[in-house]
Amino acid sequence: MFSLPNLIGTEFTPSWLPAPLTVIEDSTANPDLGTDRIDASLIGCVTGFILVVAFMGATYGVFGIFANIALAFNLALTLAALSLLGATVTLPGIAGLLLALGLSIDANILINERIREETRNGAPPVTAMETGFRRTDSTRFDRNMVILITMLILFAVGTETVKGFALTVSLGIVTSIFTSTLLTRWLMAAWFWSHRPKLLPGSHLRHPTAHHPLPFMKGRSIYLAISAALSLASAGLFFAQGQIGQFQTGMLTLGLAAIAMPIYIWFRFGWQFGIGAVVAMLLDGTKTLGFFALTGMPVNMTAMAGLVTIMGYSITNKIIVYDRIRENLGRYPKQPRHELLDLSLHQTLIQTVRTSLALVLVILPLTLFGGEALRQLAVTLLFGVILATSSSIFIAAPVLLFLGDLDLTRSPTNKTDFRAAATAKPEVVPESCSSERLSPEMAAWHRKAGRQKARRTPCRPIPKRSY
After folding, report:
1. Mind listing the pLDDT tens digit for each residue in 196-214?
2. 235: part of which helix (H) or strand (E)?
3. Among 48, 75, 71, 54, which residue's Cα sits nearest to residue 362?
4. Residue 383 in contact with residue 364, Cβ under 8 Å?
5. How far apart are CA 373 and CA 39, in angstroms?
6. Highest mean pLDDT range out of 243-247, 433-437, 445-449?
7. How far apart are CA 341 and CA 360, in angstroms?
8. pLDDT of 18 over the 70 cut
9. Is residue 394 left, alpha or beta, with left meaning phi > 0 and alpha meaning psi from -120 to 50?
10. What is the mean pLDDT of residues 251-264?
């Protein structure tokens, strides 16, 4: 029998290693390296939080302050939930926490922008505030559901690191349902009844394209052709570099995401919207693969988590536009579809851009201070936010127009029976009267078409300052 010392001595003799050993680098690893990464990530998170707080305060005034208070409560509730679950906050978890804060602030942006829109359309303060919350209920609900579906998929098939990211984002979204709806609403109501203002903050601001609405639908064929060409080139570049082997490791995650999210949109909005979501999501996803190829990023599970998150955000960004299209389908069922889509994009342009800007302000510090551990995920998400914003404006609605007439049966389910309104013969009333305060472009369309909506309220003039 051989003893262990004799065996080692026998097997590893100098004659077995003829090549000399050359020391290239001598370094010592210690726990401080992990501490440095965590400190860098925390610096990025704190910087992102400060930028978002400053953005909301500067953009929305006192209402922005209320949104920041709700954001602070959201952060506290998310950390408390993680503590109760006994979850360990990893570096991707820190990134997920910051991403959740950016997504939760989106709800307050949607509410505030709708309040401003109703105010510009002539609604009194109380009505504008109430309508701002009520008209964005379905948008906020659908956006939250899509993000939760995305995170559920990542949690189900991802690695432990990705699971921590998905869990943190999910908890942040769930807590934001409370803070953005109940807490923000209570703060606004308490402020209003204590101050009784005649004008709401930001009511004097006009829509930047109020006088010259952009004709988005005129260039729809060009937008789709350019986007398709870029996507084909991106996919070809990615697979030409031989990354298909690594890409196959995340195919299950991508497949589940590509099936689940469009099905939800189909169920909530109609088949045309579901197909539009699929097309936009695939175009965004393939361009992200091209981004991986151009930057030389390793296609690992972290990259797949970033790609699936981009796909989810691409859908949520489309929901802003789709929900307004659905609302306008019920309000103006006989309007030509290209005009209705132009109007919907015009009305939601600021919301789409500002929700994305808030996320950029959140993610950008992670690319600068988050360290190598988070930079790949942060850069991927940053690219995806910009990509999803552009496709929401130039791709999502044009796809609907190519699919033909839209279905009125999925119009918003509020107290008005829009399907009955679509088939009922409208009552002709004077041009200066309307059942609601119409925008100048909608009023012009009514005058041109020679018809007005049925009156439910006394005659009142259409306000001059609106969009």
Report:
1. 888 787 666 666 665 566 7
2. helix 220-240
3. 48
4. no
5. 12
6. 243-247
7. 27
8. no
9. alpha
10. 81
Overall residue count recorded for the chain in this entry: 467
Return phi, psi of residue 334, to 5°. -100, 0
Token pair of 218, please? Answer: 């005129």
**Main-chain dihedrals φ then ψ at residue 245, nearest 5 degrees:** -65, -45
C-alpha closest to that of 238 among 248, 252, 227: 248
Task: Tell me which residue has tokens 């707080």.
Answer: 53
pLDDT tens per residue across span 224-257: 999 999 999 998 888 887 766 656 666 777 788 8
Please enumerate in sequence order all residues whose Cβ is within 8 A of that of 161, keeping only pairs 6 or more positions apart, or say none.
90, 92, 301, 302
CA distance 126 to 131: 9
Residue 82 has which token pair? 């993680």
Alpha-carbon torsion angle 248, 253, 258, 263, nearest 10: 150
SS3 of 15, please?
helix
Query: Distance of CA 324 to CAs 152, 269, 404, Å?
Result: 27, 11, 18
* 39's tokens: 């400190």
Residue 28, classified by CB atoms within 10 Å of its CB into exposed (0-12), middle (13-18) or buried (19+), is exposed
Q: Which residue has the higher pLDDT, 41 or 13?
A: 41
Which residue did the predictor score with more confidence, 337 or 37?
A: 337
Which of helix, strand or coil describes residue 467? Answer: coil
Phi-psi category of residue 427: left, alpha or beta, with phi > 0 → left and psi -120 to 50 → alpha: beta
| DSSP symbols for 18-53 | -SPP---------THHHHHHHHHHHHHHHHHHHHHH
Please state, as a whole number, how many other Cβ atoms lie within 10 Å of the Cβ of residue 94: 23
Helices first, then strands: H and E counts in the chain: 18, 0
> Exposure of 422 by Cβ count < 10 A (0-12 exposed, 13-18 middle, 19+ buried)?
middle
| DSSP state for residue 182 in the 8-state scheme | I
Q: Of 76, 83, 86, which is closest to residue 49 (Cα–Cα)?
A: 76
Amino acid letter, 135? R
For the cut 90, the answer to whether the pLDDT of residue 418 exceeds it is no
Query: Would you say 299 and 250 are in contact if contact means Cβ atoms under 8 Å apart?
Result: yes
Neighbouring C-beta atoms of residue 130, cutoff 10 Å: 16
How confident is the model at residue 158, as a pLDDT? 73
pTM (predicted TM-score): 0.75
Q: DSSP class of residue 406?
A: P
Q: In the numeric block, which tokens belong to residue 65?
A: 């302050």
Q: What is the pLDDT of residue 244?
A: 67
How far is residue 332's CA from residue 132's CA, in Å, rounded to a whole number?
20
